[in-house]
Every structure is written in structure tokens, then in C-alpha cells.
Amino acid sequence: MSLSRRSFVQTLGVGAAGMWVGARGREGSLFGSEAVFAQGAPSPIILSSNENPLGCHPDVLAGVRGSFAEGGRYNYAAVDEITALLAKKHGVKPENVLIGSGSTQILRTSTHVFTSKTAGLTATIPAYEECADYARLMGHPITGVKLTADLRMDLDAMQQASKGAGLVFFCNPNNPVGTAVTASDTRTYLETLMKQSPTTTVLVDEAYFEYATMPGYATMIPLAVQNPRVIVARTFSKCLGMAGLRMGFAIAHADTIAKLKAWDGTNNVSIMGLMGVKAALQVPDQWVKDEQARNKAARDFTQKWFADRGYTPTDSQTNFMFINIKRPAREFRDACLKEGVLVARDFPPYEKTHARISVGTMDEMKKAVEVFGKVLAQPAKSAA
Amino acid sequence: MSLSRRRLFQRLSPVEASSPAEWIAARGREAGLTEFGEQGMAAGARPIRIASNENPLGPGQHVLDAIVGKFPEAHRYPFNAKQTEGALITAIAQKNAAKNENVLLAPGSGELLVHAVRAFTSASKPLVTAWPSYETPRDIAKKMGIPVREAALDGKLRIDIAKMVEASKGAGLVFFCNPNNPTATVHGKSAAVDLVKAIRAASPETVILIDEAYHDYVTDPAYGSMIDVALATPNVFVTRTFSKAYGMAGLRAGYAIGHAPTVKSIAAYKMPYGLGTLTLGGAIVGFANDAHIASERKRNTEVRNFTVKAFADMGVTATDSQTNFLFLDIKRPAAGFRDACRAQGVLVGRDFPPYEKTHVRVSLGTMDEMKKAVEVFKKVLGSTTTTSSKDKQQ
Q1: Residues B245, B105: one domain?
Q2: Which chain B residues are within 8 Å of A72, Cβ to Cβ?
Q3: Residue of chain B whose Cα is closest to the Cα of A58
Q4: pLDDT digits (tens, 9 = 90+) for B247-290
Q5: CATH number of A20-49+285-377
Q6: CA-based nearest residue to B366, from B8, B55, B35, B34
Q7: Which of A2, A58, A151, B229 has a beta carbon 3.0–4.6 Å from A177's, enabling a disulfide?
């Protein structure tokens, strides 16, 4: 690694837990949501977990209801059925697909299978924490790669830091910063890495795939089914509005799927989730396009509100925003919570300046910006 | 049968008869054995599924209603729902005079068994399990290269407590499945307490996992849950599941309860948000309804008595079942019996070595299902040539 690159990369020891949001539950532990939902209190506006605020297509719930007759049965047969349907939807074979309990299980299983004490995890700082949390649990080394000044993935730095890694977590669009990398840049990165580092596997997390509108963005599924060292993770928790059903999946080369399966099975997913996915696969493309457009309108509205007041958003390709609020996220979060608006956790190293805010409905965002205005009008209590 | 159930069956893919072991390893237990398409039975027939120790009635209406009540929150992560994991944890803790720190949830108790092996065993700290017993701890240990000490059962196919204690010295984890799956036998409270005491004396660092998956089906008055002991004793915890008497195998919920530091060690491996928002809503309501469980126990006991007697009339001996399944000495290989029953639309349990040449596990369906199944069993056992279809091929 060249000296100039060194400053963009930092190796996070097992003890460097502070760099990553620790432990279980993400936002769960932030608010203790049962207190937030105290009886009689008005419902809060939940902008903390990148959910689809309108929920899933009604057919999905009809599918869940249709699963009730099988509620007492183990899911073995349904897993096969839904795996085949997912494969068909994505133009791959069933042996290229692994269902998971949300993409969470895919991320954990991939980290388990492809990292070790000597071949660690490489990920941007910040990135969705699951892989790093798991690597830390296992005592496997973690290399964090800083973002560029405009909070994009620094592909040159990633390239360097990925050499020799067991697994690279390539979150595209990136959570929490919202920016995305084009398919062409991703392919160049992958091709170079494959040559440079023959034992590295790359997990491309496309959780926000349906929300990305940037020209040139595309899925890596076609590459993943060809290349045993590339895995794509997807989820039904975001655009499809099924976070409560816990369904996600991996698409990869059959040999790679076999390795993942050999460690962890599909016993965690419920028949409700499986039958919900079956219905979701029939949801018209137009429904997804409408959700994409609805999200973009609410996001544009909110980002413009911030930009007009000097708070810069990133180029979000997701259903959340990462905003330079010029004060600590914690202070902003606590103040918003008092006004009934939940925004996300800290994302080091940006926790002193940036907040992640999910996109709610337009109506929710109009109410939320009133709260943001009130909160930001107060002088920051601690220096940014 | 509802439309959805029929559709599900019509789409079941044929099993690769050549590789049942791989299927089981990759997926789950009966997956490769019991679910099948047109092969093996008449087209359009509805099988009687008595292979996986499920509650044939499924979740109660109160549970299904609660799930429908959660539909408006299906898009929320469980931690953002009006009832989070905390609500179920609190209910479980309160019913057992425990604290929330004593309870850990998982999507089925199977995940907890896996975590326990990961947390407490190593290359130098073996797993101890009765054999045969529920396979997950042994399977995961073998997969991880961790040594396994198998303690053979006693003459009545009960877990041999003396052998378990003997094997426990220096072990990382002892898996004590009570009642034992697949043999259906149970040890009374005093024997279980003795086992814990003896292991604590022989090997104080060893963790003891008492799997009470079938707790709600036990009728033996000598039996008692070990939760109170687990709460008071270092290195001891109990696992329970909603997959059996609660009828929620498809919804995926289970829990561990025991000594707080022990539970905390397992929690480190817990997969975040494993229990979905709808599952949590159903489990909370299901857990609160003790009357439903009492009624399910009564129903199961009646079916069990009927089926045990029906087999006895055929000259087939069952162990003393305290569960929702029977372990039967059919004096012939399970595989041939299973295939013959399957051809008649009845699905029974997998092989359980070293008893696979003589014994079969049969789960208890509804009374109506068991009456029909008994007719099939009579037919199959009346025939002297129940050769496995697999054997025919080879």
C-alpha cells in the first residue's frame, strides 16, 4: 500500500469496537421502542430503520393469511418452492439461491464462511454493521476503508484494502451514506480484485436496489452466478415493505451457495415470510416503480429543505438521507425524539456531524421538517 | 383442505431418493423423506403428516387473530413494532419468576442449540449427548470438528443418566433432551436434579442444556420442568419451543431460560431480529393462553393412548411416550416401513441409528388421522415383504 493510500485505510482491531455500532438490535436499543409507544401517546414518525412507510402490497398479507393452514408445520417444502420461484424471477437456477432470515442471515453466514483469523473482513467505514459485528464476534480482523470527501466509496482505496481479505462487504448503495457506485465501476473493481487477490470473496449487498435511480447503477446478479467469488444479497425488508416478515436471499454461483448452506440452513424463516415472498414475486413492476417515485419525491422534498438551509445531503440512491447537520447525531436524535420523530443511530466516524434520516411518507416528511427546523434552530450544545 | 394448503402440496418437488443424507444435512430432518410429489403415492391424495412431531391442529385461532392484528406493522422491523421482543421476554420471565436477563428468544429452539454448541464447546471441550437424541447439537459439533461423546440409552430407551454423568467430565456442554426425541421417554424431576448435581460435582465448568421441547405433552406426574433449577444454578439452562404444543412450527419461535451469565454467553451468537413482527405478535398471545395448551395436552394424550393400544394390539411395543410421538419396535427396518406407509399416504419419521433396523418414530396426528393411519399400519405390518424401494433399486 502506498503511503498516500494508508491514510484512507485503517485496520480495526478486535478491540476497536467503538468504531462500529456494537451488539444486537441496531435502533432497537436506541429508543426502547415500547416506551416510545407508551399507551395514549401519539404515534411517533419512525424515520430510523429505512423501512417502507406504506408497507407491503396487500397481496403479500393475503399470502401470509393463506399460510395459516401450514402454521403448525415446518417449512421444508415451502423453502424449496420459494427458492425455485426466486430463481425463476431472477433468471437463475434454484442452486444459485439461498433464502435467509432477512439479508441479515446472508451477511452473517457469508462472514462466517469466508473470513478467518488470517483472512479478515474489508468494508467501508461506515457500512451496514452486520458483517463487522459478526467478524468481531469471531475475532476475525476487520479493515475499514474511509469514504471520499463527498461520501462515496473510494474504489482505489477499497482495491488496496481488499487484497488478502477473506470477504469484502461491498454495500451498494451504501448504508448509511446512501451513495452508489455504477455497475461499470463495480465490475472494474471486481475484475481487478479477482486478479490481485485470488482467495477473496466479495459480498455485494443490494438491499436498496429497488430505490436506486442513478444512471449506470445495476445489479451484480449476472456476474455473481458466473463467478464463485461474488455473492449478491437482497432483502424484502426495504422497498417491498416486509421488514417484519424477515425474508432475504443470496444469489451466487452454485458452489458458493453450497458453501453457505453447509454452514447455516433455512430453518429460521417462517411460513408466513415464505408465502409473503411468493405473493411479493407477483406484485406488478408498476407497484415497485410507484414506490420508487413516491420515495424519490419525499426524499427530494426533504433533501431540498435541508440544502436550502445549508445542511448538505449526500447523493442518496436509497430510502434514507445522510445529512450534514453540523452537530452530533445524538443531540439531534434526542431532540427529535422529544418531538415524536425517530431518526437513526450514530455512524462513526460521522457521528459528530451527520444524521441518517429515513424517508417516510410525504405527509410524515412535511411534519418531520417542522421538527427538524425547530431542533436545528436551537444552538448546538456540543461542538460538531 | 384450504386452497393454499392444496397449492402448497401440488408444488412439492420430488425427492432425490439417491441422496437423503445430503438433503437432511442441507435442510432439515424430514425434508428429504416426507414431502414428495406424485411419486410414492396416488395423485391428488392428501398425506397424513406424522413425521415431524408437529401439532396437527396448528396455531390456535387466538394466535392467528393476533397475527392478523399485526398486519399493519408487517413493514416494521420487530424492534420498531408496538410489541418488541421485550414484551415476550417479559411474559416468559414473569411466568417463571425470572428476570428478563434470564431469557433469550430465537426463531425456534434449534438456533439456540447451535449457539450453545458454539458458545460452550471446543476442540478440547467435547459435546456430550445421549444417543439417539435430537441431532442438532451433535450435527453442528461434528460440522465444527468438535469431539462428541455419545451416551447410549438404557434398556427402556431412556437416557442413561449414569453414562451421561460419566461422559461429562471435562466436557464443554451436556445436551439432555427431556423428554428425549426420538425415544419419547422422560426422566422425573428428581432424576433430572440428580443429573445436574452429579455433573456439577464431576465437572463444574460443564454447561448443561436441558431441552424441554415436549414439556407441554408430558403427563408423567414424576416429571417437572428444570427451569427453577436452571435459574438458580450456574452453567444450566433450559430450551423451550413454540413449535410443538403451541402449534407454531411454521412461525419459528423458541427460547432459552436459565442462569443469566450462561444465557448471556449464548446471546452473543444470536442473529439480530430473527423473530419477525408477526411471529412475535402470535407468540405473545399464544404464550398467555395456558388453557389452550392444557386442552392440547388432553387431546394429544387421548390420541396417544388410542395409538399405543392400536399398536399393542398388533404386537408392536411402544416406549413410554411422554410426547406427541411414539417410538415403536416394529422389528423391521424403518426405511421399508416408511416407504410402504408413504405409498399409502402416511408419512412417518426418519431413521434413528442405531435403532433404524428395528424402530420407527411415528408422530401423533389428530384422532381422525390416527384412525386412518392405524389401518395403514395394520396393512403394512401384516405384510411380510415390506422391502425398501431404495433396496429394490440397489
Answers
A1: yes
A2: 54-59, 247-250
A3: B71
A4: 999 999 999 999 999 999 999 999 999 999 999 999 999 999 99
A5: 3.90.1150.10
A6: B55
A7: A151
Fill in the amino acid letter for A42.
Answer: P
Which chain B residue's Cα is nearest to A258?
A: B26
- Give pLDDT tens digits for A351-363: 999 999 999 999 9
Residues B28 and B121 in one domain: no
Residues B13, B37 contacting (CB under 8 angstroms): yes
Supply the CATH classification number for the domain A58-280: 3.40.640.10
- Alpha-carbon distance of A222 to A127, in angstroms, equals 24
Q: At A34, is the pLDDT very low, low, confident or very high (cuts 50, 70, 90)?
A: low
CATH code, domain carrying B352 = 3.90.1150.10
Please check whether residue A144 is in contact with residue A19, taking contact to mean a CB–CB distance below 8 angstroms.
Answer: yes
Residue B375 and residue B309 share a domain: yes
Q: Indicate the domain borders of chain A.
A: 20-49+285-377, 58-280
Q: How far is B242 from chain A (nearest CA, A)?
A: 9
List, in sequence order, every residue forming a beta bridge with A167; answer none if it has no partner: A121, A201
Amino acid at B360: V
DSSP B381: H
Q: How far apart are the C-alpha atoms of A324 and A329, rounded to whole Å? A: 9
* Burial of B3 (C-beta count, 10 Å sphere; 0-12/13-18/19+): exposed
Is beta strand B127-131 parallel, antiparallel or unpaired with respect to B173-177? parallel
**What distances in angstroms separate CA B262 from CA A148, A377, B45, B97, B101, one per listed residue?**
44, 48, 48, 17, 10
Contacts of A78 in chain B (CB under 8 A): 8
User: Taking residues A145-149, what's their average pLDDT?
Assistant: 97
Strand partners, A355: A323
Best CA proximity match to B21, nearest among B335, B325, B243: B335
CB contact under 8 A, B28 and A269: no
Distance, CA of A57 to chain centre: 21
The amino acid at residue A342 is L
**Least CB-CB distance to A246: which of B11, B68, B274?**
B274
Are A356 and A343 in contact by the 8 Å Cβ rule? The answer is yes
**CB-based contacts of A91, cutoff 8 Å, min separation 6:** none
pTM: 0.91
Nearest to A244 among B85, B268, B276 (CB): B276
Give the C-alpha separation, B132 to B142, whole Å: 15
- Report phi then psi at B272, rounded to 5: -60, 145
| Per-residue exposure over B98-117, b if at least 16 CB sit within 10 Å of its own CB, e if not | beeebbbbbbbbbbbbbbbb
A352: amino acid identity, one letter: K
Nearest-by-Cβ selection for A71 from B85, B250, B268: B250
Q: How many Å apart are CA B312 and CA B318, to the nearest integer?
A: 8
